[in-house]
Structures are given as C-alpha cells and as structure tokens.
UniProtKB/TrEMBL annotation:
Disordered: annotated span: 461-483
InterPro entries: Ankyrin_rpt, Ankyrin_rpt-contain_sf
Name recorded for this polypeptide: Fe2OG dioxygenase domain-containing protein
UniProt source species: Chromera velia CCMP2878
C-alpha cells in the first residue's frame, strides 16, 4: 500500500460517523488487479494483515529478512492508526475486531498497546482497552530488546521486558498509568519487573536520580510513582520513593552496567539470528541453485583459476605478489586474469537473476541501500572471497603488511544514468582493510575513477556510521571529511587489478561519464584475534574496542575496560 492510499484509508476511518463495511477496507487494502482478483474474505482478515500482505513477500534471507526493520511493512491498520494518533479510527477498527496485541514484525516489536502508552495517546488507549483481551494475554505483553541506529552516532540499545504501564510511567503519563491501574487485566503490571529485575517503582527512582529536583520531568515521574504507591498500599509514598533514589554516581555506574548487559544481549541475539538465516540460506542454495561457473565455488579450483595469467600458459601470476604503493597506505597489484573477472561478473548476475526469477525458493539475496548486491559471503561466494584473501595476503607480505581475514563483501555497479552515482561522498570504510578488485569495465568507460585524500591522522578523523543496519556492513561516514583540494590521488581502475588500503583511508568514487564499471569490494580484519569473552570466541580485529558478536569490551592498557568505541566494529 502506498503512503497516499494509507492516508486515504485512515481518513475514511477517522471521518465516517459509522464504521465502514468490509468492502470499503477491501478497496483500500486489496484494490482490484487486472486478471485474478486477490481479496481477503472477511473484515477480520483484512484488519490483522500487514499492509504489504497484498504485495509479493521479500525473499527469505534477503536484506529485508535479515534486517526486518527495512521490510516494506507499515504494520496493521490498527497499529498505523495508533501511531497516527487517530482515536476515531482506532475505535472503529477495534469495533471491527482488530487485535490490540498486534506486534510489528520489525525487531522493535512495537504494537498498539506499547505505542499509545509511551507516546501518551490517552484517547486511543481508551479504545484499545475496550477490546476483550484476557488478563493472561496482558501479562505476556513486554517490549523486546532492540538496537536503534542514530545517524552518525553510535547505536542506541533499548531494553526489552517493559510492560505498557512501565512505558507510560517512565514517560510521565500519569493519566495513562491510572487507566491501567483501574483495569483489572493490567494491574499486575504495577509490580512486573523489567528485564533487569527492577520493579516499576525502582525504575522510576533510578530515572529520577539524574534529574534536578525541581525539573518538570522529575515531578512527572514522581506523580506516576505516587499512583503506584497508592495502588500498592504504600503509606507515605513520596518518602518511600525518595528513599529509593540512588546517588548520582551510584545511578550512573548502575546505568553503565545495565547498558553493557543490554548490548551483550542484543548482539548475541542478533548474531544467533544471522547465523540461523545464513545456514538456512546456504542449505537452500545447495538444493536449488545451478551455477553458471561452478569452479568459483570450489576452494581449490577458484584459486587456480584466479592466479593464472591472461596467456594460454597456466603459470601462476607472479605479478600478483608485487604490489605498488600508489599513495600513502594504498597499494595496487594484479590479482586476477580477465577471464576470471568476467566469470565473477557473470556468475553474480546469473545468481541475482535466478533468485529474482524464483522468489518462492527463498534463496538469500541482499540488496544494499544503494541498489548494489551485499553480503556475498552469505550467498555461497565464500570460496571466491577466500581466494581473494589469499592473493591479497601474498601482496601484503611482499609489502611488509600484516595478513588479513575477509568477513564481508559486496558488488558495486556504476553506469551512466544510475541515480546513486550522484550520491558518492568522501568516506572511510568500517573495515581494517578494504580490497577493491575491478571485475568489469566496458571498452568505452570514462570516469568512475576513485579519489584518495590525505590520510587519517594528517587531516580530520573518521568515525564509522551505523546509519545503515550493521548486518549489511554498508555504512560509512565522515566527520569533517577532506575536500577536493586535499585529493592526493585519482586512480583509474583496470580489470584484474586490485587496490588494497586501510579502511580508515579517505576515498570516494568519482562520477561516471560513459560506459559501465563493476568492482568486487572485500572487507577484512587484521590477524586471527578473537573475542576474550569466555563463551564467545568470535573473530575480533585488534583495532576493535568491543566484540560485535557479544559486546565484550577490550581492556585498555591500565587494566580497566575501554570506554564506548569511537569506531564501531
């Protein structure tokens, strides 16, 4: 459903005096198509379907299934009406059987009974409470742990385990807290602990610790706390609450500890989820996909093919071991022959076409924010990437640099008329080492060069951006990036030649003027370091300040734990 259709639907619901019949909702949610008409058979089915229900589902393992917050799903009609704070629409949808217990499929798991209390939408909430849900259902309503990417800043983690009442209380919405306390189905929330084992009163006391005594926010929290005290039969409620408020330093230390625990919970759950999807995707690949160039999937054959020269001879390409430092920390070296690069280009596109032509198979396909193909390591191309790693490490050894280990790769495609070409910015990568292997360049290629700028430490400072989901590893960012006057190199790619540089190196792709070009971009860690957490053992680059699989903080030289990282792993 488009945003305009959504607006029309909500307008109908919020303006009509009587609840519309099922045909009205059907026309909005399931408009007639040419050919076969697909409509839900009843109002209840329509109401509890996500808005994308009438559209093709994303492939299993696609970017939207690995990162559900990117799924084109706006939620159920009731949820959207609550988010839009449309109480009349909420009342009509509840009357027609909409489910207030609905949970959005994205990682945040938001729903009507969470959103309204948190935002203070009292009128909408009153209608939700008219729904005949049970006390047992209410007791199960708890928020989920999830991660929020805040633009250029570090990710923010939201704790799960909070009841709707606790959401309202922590936001100072006393009238809503009172509504819940008057509803026998919701009264258990008054004592329901959060995910750290804190009762609602203690949560409020902890929140008050960081606020000035006379601040409006603290007074609002105190008002909600006093409502809870009255409900729980606590005499001298204000004295009781004030006695629970910790000192400022104690509260700060406890908050940091909770954040560490929360981050670890979220990252462990995210790692397990990704691994489950990865294994499922690779199993489906083995069952259903027939490669065009099968040698790319064989660890032995792919290395032999890549290191051949472009002559008829099968002699290994010795030049791949002779890197040239074309700028400070930037090395170029022949890595693969042209026939090999052509096979890589063809195979990845063959795979993409097969997956798009067979969405019912659920094969993994990861489309990046810029339309390119990401997470190739999860699409069966790991043998190819390990061959690139082997060649790059030969070159690194020759240049006196440490070996690296690949962990992520994507394919870039630049051609005239591509809208994303105009959005390329000077940036640094979220990798220790980046390997850029040109696998395609048309005969008429003009432009699409890569500019390199003064290195980190000599100008500005790079901070990686979590603006895109970290699962895709496609975010990059800059704080005060260098300008064109600080460009030190303009590099023209050649098929089969790789460029290797530190992830902290400032660079950008220049506009393409004619033809097309494609590169296999591989991100790598340095060395064989692993996380120091006892039960983790995931790979961890020496430069990372925390493990992105479990959240373990690397100790600093004085023996204490490091602060939150400047550059996220």
């Amino acid at each position: 459903m488009s945003s305009s259709q959504l607006g029309d639907l909500l307008s109908v619901l919020n303006d009509q005096e009587e609840a519309p019949d099922s045909s009205v909702l059907q026309d909005f949610l399931f408009p007639p198509f040419s050919g076969e008409v697909a409509r839900a058979p009843s109002p209840c089915n329509i109401i509890d379907k996500e808005f994308y229900a009438a559209s093709p589902k994303p492939q299993q393992g696609s970017s939207s299934s690995l990162s559900t917050e990117k799924a084109e799903c706006m939620g159920s009609p009731l949820y959207i009406a609550c988010v839009s704070n449309l109480p009349i629409a909420v009342a009509k949808l509840i009357h027609m059987g909409a489910n207030p217990m609905y949970r959005h499929p994205a990682p945040h798991g938001d729903g009507p009974l969470f959103h309204c209390p948190e935002q203070g939408y009292e009128a909408c909430l009153k209608h939700l409470l008219q729904s005949p849900f049970s006390k047992e259902e209410a007791e199960q309503m708890r928020t989920k742990d999830f991660k929020i990417a805040l633009g250029q800043a570090l990710p923010h983690f939201e704790a799960g385990g909070r009841s709707p009442l606790l959401l309202a209380a922590c936001n100072g919405h006393a009238p809503i807290v009172e509504l819940f306390l008057q509803d026998t189905r919701c009264q258990a929330w008054a004592e329901a602990p959060d995910s750290f084992g804190r009762a609602p009163l203690q949560v409020l006391a902890d929140e008050m610790a960081s606020l000035a005594v006379e601040s409006v926010k603290r007074k609002e929290l105190l008002a909600t706390a006093l409502l809870l005290c009255a409900h729980l039969g606590i005499d001298e409620g204000e004295k009781e609450v004030n006695g629970m408020i910790p000192g400022a330093e104690e509260a700060k230390t406890a908050s940091i500890t909770r954040n560490k625990i929360l981050r670890s919970r979220v990252l462990k759950a995210e790692t397990a989820r990704k691994q489950e999807l990865r294994l499922k995707g690779l199993s489906l690949l083995e069952q259903h996909y027939a490669p065009r160039h099968s040698f790319l999937y064989d660890p032995t054959e792919v290395c032999a093919a890549m290191f051949k020269t472009d002559t008829e001879s099968s002699t290994e390409n010795e030049s791949a071991q002779s890197p040239a430092e074309i700028s400070d920390g930037v090395f170029a070296f022949p890595l693969a022959n042209s026939a090999f690069c052509k096979a890589v280009w063809e195979e990845i596109h063959h795979y993409e076409k097969f997956v798009r032509d067979h969405p019912d198979l659920g094969l993994p396909l990861h489309e990046r924010h810029d339309g390119n193909l990401g997470n190739l390591q999860d699409c069966g191309f790991l043998p190819l990437l390990e061959a690139v790693e082997k060649g790059a490490n030969r070159a690194a050894e020759k240049a006196g640099r440490p070996p690296c280990r690949v962990y992520h790769a994507f394919l870039t495609r630049n051609f005239v008329g591509r809208e994303e070409n105009a959005k390329f910015k000077v940036h640094c990568d979220r990798s220790a080492v980046t390997i850029n292997l040109c696998v395609h360049a048309s005969d008429d290629l003009q432009g699409s060069t890569v500019g390199f700028f003064l290195p980190k430490g000599r100008r500005g400072r790079a901070v990686a951006s979590p603006k895109k989901d970290e699962e895709n590893d496609d975010g990059s960012a800059q704080i005060d990036p260098p300008g064109e006057e600080e460009r030190v190199l303009t590099y023209a790619h050649k098929v089969g030649t790789a460029v290797m540089h530190d992830g902290s190196c400032w660079h950008k792709t220049d506009p393409i003027e004619r033809g097309s070009r494609g590169s296999l971009i591989v991100w790598a860690r340095l060395g064989d370091g692993v996380c120091g957490e006892r039960d983790c053992g995931e790979p961890m680059d020496p430069s990372w300040k925390f493990c992105k699989a479990c959240g373990w903080l690397r100790p600093v030289s004085n023996g204490s734990e490091s602060a939150l990282p400047v550059v996220p792993a």
